[in-house]
Amino acid sequence: MSPPTLSEVQSVLLRLIRAPEGVEKAVAELDASGNGVAAAVGRWIVGDERLSAHARLDVYANMYFYRLKDVLEQEFERTARLLGEVGFHNLVTDFLLAHPSHSPSIRWVSRPFPAYLAAHSASGDFPAAADLASIEWAWWDSFQAADAEPLAAEELAAVPEDRWADLVLRPVPAFHLLRVRRDSLALWRGERPGIDPSPVSVAVSRARFSPAVAELGDREALALFRLAAGEAVGEVAAALAGDDSDDASVVEAVLELAGYLREGIGRGDFAGPVS
Amino acid sequence: MNRPPYLGHGVGLRRQHFDRFLEGSTRCDFLEVISENFMDAGGKARAVLRRMRERYPVVLHGVSLSIGSSDPLDFRYLDSLRALAEEIRPEWVSDHLCWTGADGVNAHDLLPLPYTEEALAHVVERVRRVQDRLGRQIALENVSSYLRYRFSEMPEWEFLARISEEADCGILLDVNNFYVSAVNHDFDPHAYLDGVPSARVWQIHLGGPSQQGPLLIDTHDSGILSPVWDLYERTIRKLGPTSTLIEWDAKVPAFSVLEAEMLEARRRHDAARVGEESAVS
């Protein structure tokens, strides 16, 4: 019998290593579907009196799972604590089946985790868990995000008055805006809240190296979400002014927006140069 | 091939020790960083790396090149690695002689290759393309293994040696790894060392494994084993002065513990060199 190709070996071994309930069971299941994997593994991998071929593959299977679980546990520390050891373990098992890593960097394994958790049965028992995971992911991403030259207050002040309305600001990669349940924010802060699904807006900013998570007022959130979505300063000011389009309301809205911009620039939320 | 300059002894730059490195000097001669942790990333880690680059020679060590995978090479990854190398100007760039994924999935593990002519030709061709894309030669590290393939056609050391010669690349010789594999697969680690072409070895890794059942596992979570120290001394007697790095990635100890292990490596390296010179004279 001719030896298997590299591609054939790697496809089968990776499938077995990723199997959630161990290599032995995965081989049996594949064999039941007429795949002939058991015979192939026996032909390919050396087993000996110390360990069978399947047990040797299991070493890699365990390392695969626990390496990725460790990463998720580190990045979603509070979420893991909330779900408990067994709950988190089972969630990670399901998650890795649905979302194996496709990136060279292990950092991106966790990106789909909050959305996956939101649709997972674990959220039925812990309704704040998915939003808590969103905050945790935003914090980690902010911590590691690519650097960007922050917009300087002087640069913004130098923009001619007739260009202000059309000005579009770009958030830096380390800046995140979230809308989450209030109880998830409390859990992030280490409090022990009761159930409170009311929505709250949150900004994650990285001033120098350490990200900060801050609750936003409704009007500041309205302004920042619109700016981050690429709306021009004039459009955002109009949204703040609302239906009151008289001159005094517009001036008040512009001043209010200028205040939010000053604070955002102070935190390094926007990237320069202005366009 | 000329071996790159001897850098001395160093450690891996890990975030647990960032503040220690920022606080002041250490007795390290050079530092190694995991390439993927800094590619397309900023913040504190990148700032620390830039600062350390001003103080130490740095080498980039990757874990996701997946040079032996049957998947196509990831040129986006390579371009990102090249951009990092252009900024950091490392003494050299290395990765592992293994595969880390297939069918588009990354296992984030260093999986062993079968040592066949097919795999050899596949890896040689890919190393050449990687070196072209990066605009530099790379070094490949031997990995620890817990399984071996019945259809391998040559021993691992021959596979490693032939790849380095045919692809014209360097070797990062992990002494702990070939010791671990020797224990797990019942071969003589001295035969491995004898089979490695000295002129191709750019760097040595030392790290601590752990016993799990009947196997030794390359966990990088402890000090270096006594037989690995002995092998290291023998390696230096064979290779001459070779840049050596201590890896400690799990249960990361206080910096003083890591530094002490590095100083022990330096002491043994220098003692082996004296022994070698005495034997010659």
Explain how this protein is built.
- The complex is a heterodimer of chains A (275) and B (281).
- With 275 residues, chain A is mainly alpha-helical.
- Helix content of chain A is 56%, strand content 9%.
- Chain A has helices at 6-17, 23-32, 37-44, 53-75, 77-98, 113-118, 122-125, 129-144, 153-157, 182-188, 218-228, 233-241, 247-267, and strands at residues 170-171, 176-181, 199-207, 210-216, 270-271.
- In chain A, the strands form 2 sheets. A 3-stranded antiparallel sheet of chain A has the order 2-3-4.
- In chain A, a hairpin with a 2-residue loop joins strand 3 and strand 4 (210-216).
- In chain A, helix 5 crosses helix 8 and helix 12 (233-241) packs across helix 13.
- The longest helix of chain A has 23 residues, at 53-75.
- The radius of gyration of chain A is 25 Å and the shape is elongated.
- The mean pLDDT of chain A is 93.
- The mean pLDDT of chain B is 95.
- Chain B contains 9 helices and 12 strands.
- In chain B, the strands form 3 sheets. An 8-stranded parallel beta barrel of chain B has the order 1-2-3-4-7-8-9-12, surrounded by 5 helices. Chain B has a two-stranded antiparallel sheet with strand order 5-6. In chain B, strands 10-11 form a two-stranded antiparallel sheet.
- The radius of gyration of chain B is 18 Å and the shape is globular.
- Chains A and B meet through helix 1, helix 4 and helix 8 of A and helix 2, strand 5, strand 6 and helix 4 of B.
Note the beta-strand portion of chain A: 5-15%
Rg of chain A (CA only): 25 Å
Question: What value does the average pLDDT of chain A take?
Answer: 93
Number of discrete helical segments of chain B: 9
Main β-sheet of chain B, in a few words? 8 strands, parallel, barrel
Succession of helices and strands of chain A? HHHHHHHHHEEHEEHHHE
- Spans of chain B of at least 5 consecutive residues whose pLDDT stays below 50 are none
| Total beta strands of chain A | 5
Shape verdict of chain A: elongated
Shape of chain B: globular
Secondary-structure content class of chain A: mainly alpha
Percentage beta strand of chain B: 15-25%
Query: Which strand order do you get reading across the main beta sheet of chain A?
Result: 2-3-4
Which segments of chain A are poorly predicted (pLDDT under 50) over 5 or more consecutive residues? none
Query: What is the terminal-to-terminal distance of chain A?
Result: 66 Å
Instruction: Enumerate how many helices of chain A there are, as a single number.
Output: 13
> What is the helix fraction of residues of chain B, given as a range?
40-55%
- Straight-line N-to-C gap of chain B: 27 Å
User: Residue-averaged pLDDT of chain B, rounded?
Assistant: 95
